[in-house]
Amino acid sequence: MFKAEQLAHTLHQLIEQGVWKPHQKLPSLREQAQTSGYSLMTVLNAYQELEARGLVFAREKSGYYVADQNMQPTALDRIEDSTLQSNIQMNSFVFDYLKSIQPNDILPFGSAFPNTALLHQPKLLQIVAQHARRKQSYESTASMPPGLLTLQQIIARRYSLQGIATEPQDIVITSGCLDALNLSLQAVAQPGDYILLQQTIFYGAWQAAERLGLNVITLPEHPEYGFDLEKFEQCLQMYPIKVCWLMLNSHNPIGFSVSDDIKQKIAQLLARYKVYLIEDDVYQELYFGSKKPLSVKYFDQDHRVLHCSSFSKTLGAGFRVGWVHHRKLSNQIQHLQLMSTIAVSPLLQHALVDFLSTHHYEKHLRSLRLKLEHHKKLFYRYLKQHLPAECEVYYYPSGYFLWIKLPKHIDSTQLYQTLLQHRIGIAPSQLFTVNRQQQHFIRLNCSFEFTNQTQHALDLLIHSITSAKFDQSSTYSDKP
Ligand SMILES: Cc1ncc(COP(=O)(O)O)c(C=O)c1O
């Protein structure tokens, strides 16, 4: 091992001195053995040592590459103004899009859900099966709002552990996060009201605004901080905004998380202007590193924040179990729930209580975060290395999405349709914004293994971008 360490030390220096550049391929094991005079096994050990230090990474059947240590995200584009948008029409496009990527043979890079292989929890399924045999799982009063008390208790405890004093009755169990978000919005907004949305945001927010006939004020992203406090306050002064719907942790689709300082200031502004916030925190557990990010809810002394989340991104969207946290509006939300989705299957609620009471969930989360980080970095490095220089790949240390800026002349919806013909899904920016100037972005789900199939699909994506032509009639073509 001593020789391997020596070699690793020499190679480490080459990387530090910039002789070997980020994304550059290292000599093969055989070549390195020949030039250095060390055995193949020593070279392999040295490469693995460098990999463990995060200096190089291995790509299946290809070799070792120098890792890019600079994962600092580049600044986002500056978009000057907030806008007022009435008569939102997003639902039909989202519907057609989701249908189009549904078939099993479409590579799910356009999906909003993590690779199910990473979520699979045999222990949880075993518990579900045990409960499925119990009569109590079907007769439970948990089929009435606000849901199963023991599940409310567990969720409340998780909040309290993060410093958000919570009683079980503050929690309403819902059919996933989307149900929580929609019920929350209905509880505070009427048709014709003004809602503030981030300029680019999860399509569920646009659909909700469309369904309720709301006027939307869009808030452009801050190029560096993700959230623009100054513009936010200007919007609160200019428009009679009743409610905001924001994502501040692992934003979908862009990926950024906003600092605690900004979250605290958002809470202060909400209190000052008496505006509600629907905080979509569905990716709250998928942070990289050791510190779970706070939410605006943490700073919410004025009961302005309806905090919504679910188990969809950590245990599987199929469970359809989510919740909303708001002390004062809990009763109103339950009334609305009784008129729509009623409650979640008691069987699943019982099973979740048992599963969450064990150590399995925390263990699962730790391993999930590590795997997501690993996959995301591999996708990022490959794309950084092979995409044309005019493209930008935004990497943020959480979640499993990469947000990619394409050359401005490429319409991402047309690119998505082209790739669909090759059975590859990608999410075009038209799903997330109504701004016509922002149609050249795509969101890529990177929660999958970096296999040969993955690489082939990314190569096709890269080829389609590289060879995109834009003719006079504005039609996209991927033909060279
Ligand atoms: C940002 C965001 N919020 C909410 C949801 C809905 O989550 P659920 O499946 O728990 O309803 C999703 C799902 O894609 C999402 O990406």
List the helices and strands and how they pair.
Blueprint: H1 2-16, H2 29-36, H3 40-52, E1 56-59, E2 63-66, E3 83-85, H4 91-100, H5 116-119, H6 122-132, H7 136-139, H8 149-161, E4 171-174, H9 176-188, E5 194-198, H10 203-212, E6 215-219, H11 229-238, E7 241-246, H12 260-273, E8 276-280, E9 305-310, E10 322-325, H13 330-338, H14 346-356, H15 360-386, E11 392-394, E12 401-405, H16 412-421, E13 427-428, E14 441-445, H17 452-466, E15 469-470, E16 476-477
Parallel strand pairs: 5-6, 5-7, 7-8, 8-9
Antiparallel strand pairs: 1-2, 3-6, 4-10, 9-10, 11-12, 12-14, 13-14, 15-16
Helix pairs in contact: 1-3, 2-3, 6-14, 9-10, 9-13, 11-12
The structure holds pyridoxal-5'-phosphate (PLP).
What would your notes on this structure say?
The protein has 480 residues and is of the alpha/beta class. It has three domains: 2-66, Arc Repressor Mutant, subunit A (Orthogonal Bundle); 83-99 and 115-360, 3-Layer(aba) Sandwich (Aspartate Aminotransferase, domain 2); 365-477, Aspartate Aminotransferase, domain 1. It has helices at residues 2-16, 29-36, 40-52, 91-100, 116-119, 122-132, 136-139, 149-161, 176-188, 203-212, 229-238, 260-273, 330-338, 346-356, 360-386, 412-421, 452-466, and strands at 56-59, 63-66, 83-85, 171-174, 194-198, 215-219, 241-246, 276-280, 305-310, 322-325, 392-394, 401-405, 427-428, 441-445, 469-470, 476-477. An eight-stranded mixed sheet has the order 3-6-5-7-8-9-10-4, with helices on both faces. Strands 11-12-14-13 form a four-stranded antiparallel sheet, covered by helices on one side. Strands 1-2 form a two-stranded antiparallel ribbon. Pyridoxal-5'-phosphate (PLP) is lined by residues 112, 176-178, 202, 204, 247, 252, 280, 282, 310, 312, 317, 322.
